[in-house]
Specification:
The complex is a heterodimer.
Chain A (H helix, E strand, L loop, with lengths): L7 H27 L19 H7 L2 H34 L4 H9 L6 H11 L6 H8 L13 H30 L2 H9 L4 H29 L3 H6 L11 H11 L3 H32 L5
Helix pairs in contact in A: 1-12, 2-12, 3-7, 3-9, 5-7, 7-9, 8-9, 9-12, 11-12
Chain B lengths: L3 E10 L2 E11 L4 E5 L6 H9 L6 E6 L2 E2 L10 E4 L11 H11 L4 H14 L15 H13 L5 E5 L7 H18 L2 E6 L2 H7 L2 E6 L2 E6 L1 H6 L4 H6 L6 E8 L2 E4 L4 E3 L11 E6 L4 E3 L10 E13 L3 E8 L2 E8 L9 E7 L4 E4 L9
Parallel strand pairs in B: 3-8, 3-9, 6-7, 7-8
Antiparallel strand pairs in B: 1-2, 1-4, 4-5, 9-10, 11-12, 11-14, 12-13, 14-20, 15-19, 16-17, 16-19, 17-18
The chains are: A mainly alpha, B alpha+beta.
Pfam families (chain A): BPD_transp_1
InterPro entries (chain A): MetI-like, MetI-like_sf
Protein name (chain A): Sugar ABC transporter permease
Chain lengths: ~300, ~350
């Protein structure tokens, strides 16, 4: 009897290896492979139809893809910056509150507790041109007498999506920046007061440098979030009208599951991943740099 | 430069009053040290002068102005904090020049002022480092440099040496004193360390529980403490205190030990008193105390010795109370050895047993 004897370390690692392969490795390799084929969900045998870099070339020369790419970057830039500013303001105000701060902090978290799908539905209703809250309010106040097509006009639709995105995620910045505010030592702020700083100068020269690491952590987390934005957009506008709010992942989702062109969708997906990776690396670099400024960590 | 006056200054946190109506006049160019145990209100008082704490009652004057309602930046003061309070994201140069930059001075003026301050405190080689790359003593020097570049009217020091090790503390103490001699500025300095207070101050303000107990020159508060608190707080080792009763011209202590009433004190027969004597004024016979007019002798058994080199501290029991005595030109002493001690009565103190106040006439 010559039984196959595996070394003990391999036996011990095997469960982890099997699980990781099933969950991560095989889908990853499969999707990467399929991006080099003309794989269509409706014709399973097409997965063996090797097309080389055709899908990648097609994506990189596709106007629709680049439009979605640009829109995603736009959403990322606008939403992240506004969320940061609003979150900073929110955190500064909450930090000044002396009574009921705990309650306020909990309330700040509320928007994060809802599923983005529900948030999408909520804002779809709020911005609805006939029965929506916004138009209703504007008309009741006499500010306008027509139904503003919030989700139908291309620019307004993008605005509405950004609005919803900011509503859900400003508190992420708020909470993290608040944590940063709590961590600031009191002495340098007092020294700044004695050194002649006004409230604004204290904030600009002392508070803000201390907060930067926290801001960059929030940016890194949120940039990943926004770069993969799908649910809110899918519910509110479904990428419409006429693809004016089409983002990378709504485009990829549509290509893969509606048009069934999975190979092409995977190729676009791999290109899009770089966007997320780029922003993450960028913000982590900024984070390390700002920590170094403060003499923290190497 | 300016004088500082505190007039009936009160600090309250809600219903809790922590500083009780204190009055203090500080002359132009004077080095005043506020000293007292933790929680005595000395830092709070300093922070009220700085404008970092609101003033609940009374007035603070700096120069000829009442500064109660002025923010710190309009008081023309600078402050050195216990934890240095440097800006960690700025280099030493930027830290030093920060207040001038805020005051919108020209870069050339800032550079000049920073260079002068760096020269005074020998920080020149460190100018381009960040606080994180400095040692504790260097950071403290930067904090002091930041204070001096502005030529403020008053310097405030809040326990600046507490975070340094003993050797560095001694060294920085000398530097602060030199700095004061050079700048001739008004300084208010807070510490809980009576050695720092004694060595630095022109005048010492001893505080306890939000009250000023005594104000005086270092020698004055050392030689003429107004009460037992000041007597034990100032001086190291602390003054020995013995409870006794006046019997005619003598004091009687527990166990029948008797000593003459020290000269210069008003006592009544039968009065309960506290007798105070410093270790420096109670020494074994033959060990350096000159024979004076008012001497007394007691015999005590030595329980413990602490040799310090030039002198040895002897712990002995007198009338049931542990007392510390000093032995100059020390010889080895066995534990339990009985020795005759001389007490220099001219230098002894009598306090009221109940109030602790001095009975000096």
């Amino acid at each position: 009897m010559n039984r196959l004897k595996l070394p003990p370390w391999l036996v011990l690692l095997l469960p982890a290896i099997i699980i990781l392969s099933a969950v991560v490795l095989i889908p990853l390799v499969l999707s990467l492979y399929s991006s080099f084929t003309s794989y269509r969900l409706t014709r399973p045998d097409s997965i063996f139809n090797w097309v080389g870099f055709f899908n990648y070339e097609k994506a990189l020369t596709d106007v629709k893809f680049w439009a979605a790419f640009g829109r995603t970057v736009l959403l990322l830039t606008v939403a992240l910056n506004l969320e940061m500013l609003l979150g900073l303001g929110l955190a500064l105000m909450v930090s000044k509150v002396t009574q009921g701060q705990r309650l306020l902090r909990t309330m700040m978290m509320f928007p994060m507790m809802f599923s983005p799908i529900l948030v999408g539905f909520q804002f779809k209703f709020i911005f609805n041109d006939n029965v929506g809250l916004v138009n209703n309010a504007l008309q009741s106040l006499g500010l306008t007498d027509r139904a503003i097509p919030w989700l139908v006009d291309g620019h307004l639709a993008m605005f509405s999506i950004i609005f919803a995105e900011i509503w859900t995620a400003t508190s992420v910045f708020g909470i993290l920046i608040l944590a940063g505010l709590y961590a600031i030592p009191r002495d340098p702020l007092e020294a700044a007061k004695v050194d002649g700083c006004t409230a604004w100068q204290s904030f600009r020269y002392v508070t803000l440098p201390f907060l930067m690491p926290f801001i960059y952590i929030a940016m890194a987390i949120r940039s990943l979030d926004v770069a993969r934005a799908y649910d809110i957009v899918q519910i509110m506008t479904n990428g419409g009208p006429a693809r004016r709010t089409e983002l990378l992942w709504t485009l990829i989702g549509r290509t893969g599951y509606v048009d069934a062109r999975m190979g092409y969708a995977n190729a676009m997906g791999y290109i899009s991943i770089f966007l997320a990776i780029f922003f993450t690396i960028y913000f982590f670099k900024k984070l390390t740099q700002s920590r170094k400024e403060l003499g923290m960590g190497a | 430069m300016a004088q500082v006056h505190l007039r009936d200054v009160v600090k309250k946190y809600g219903p809790l009053e922590v500083v009780h109506s204190i009055n203090l006049d500080i002359a132009d160019g004077e080095f005043v040290v506020l000293v007292g145990p933790s929680g005595c209100g000395k830092s709070t008082t300093l922070r009220m002068v700085a404008g970092l704490e609101g003033i609940s009652g009374g007035e603070v004057h700096i120069g000829n102005r009442v500064v109660n309602d002025l923010p710190p930046r309009e008081r023309n003061i600078s402050m050195v904090f216990q934890n240095y309070a440097l800006y960690p994201h700025m280099t030493v140069r930027e830290n030093l020049g920060f207040s001038l930059k805020i005051a919108k001075q020209s870069q050339a003026d800032i550079d000049k002022a920073v260079d002068v301050a760096a020269e005074i405190l020998s920080l020149t080689p460190l100018l381009d480092r960040k606080p994180g790359a400095l040692s504790g003593g260097q950071r403290q020097r930067v904090a002091m440099g930041r204070a001096i570049v502005r030529h403020p009217e008053v310097f405030l020091f809040d326990e600046p040496l507490s975070n340094l090790d003993a050797k560095l503390r001694t060294q920085m103490r000398v530097e602060i004193k030199k700095l004061h001699q050079k700048l001739k500025s008004t300084i208010i300095y807070v510490t809980h360390d009576q050695v720092e207070a004694m060595t630095l101050a022109d005048r010492i303000v001893i505080m306890r529980d939000g009250h000023i107990e005594q104000v005086g020159t270092p020698l004055d508060v050392f030689e003429n403490p107004v009460n037992t608190f000041v007597g034990t707080f100032i001086g190291s080792p602390p003054m020995n205190l013995l409870d006794g009763v006046v019997k005619g011209f003598e004091l009687e202590f527990a166990g029948g030990t008797r000593l003459p009433v020290p000269p210069g004190y008003a006592t009544q027969d039968g009065q309960a008193v506290t007798f105070g004597v410093r270790a420096d004024n109670i020494m074994p016979v033959g060990h350096a105390l000159p024979r004076g007019e008012h001497m007394a002798e007691v015999e005590m058994a030595v329980d413990l010795t602490e040799p310090l080199g030039t002198e040895t501290l002897l712990f002995a029991t007198l009338a049931g109370t542990e007392v510390q005595a000093k032995m100059l030109n020390p010889r080895p002493v066995q534990s339990g050895e009985r020795m005759t001690f001389q007490i220099m009565l001219d230098k002894c103190h009598l306090f009221d047993a109940e109030t602790g106040a001095t009975l000096r006439t």
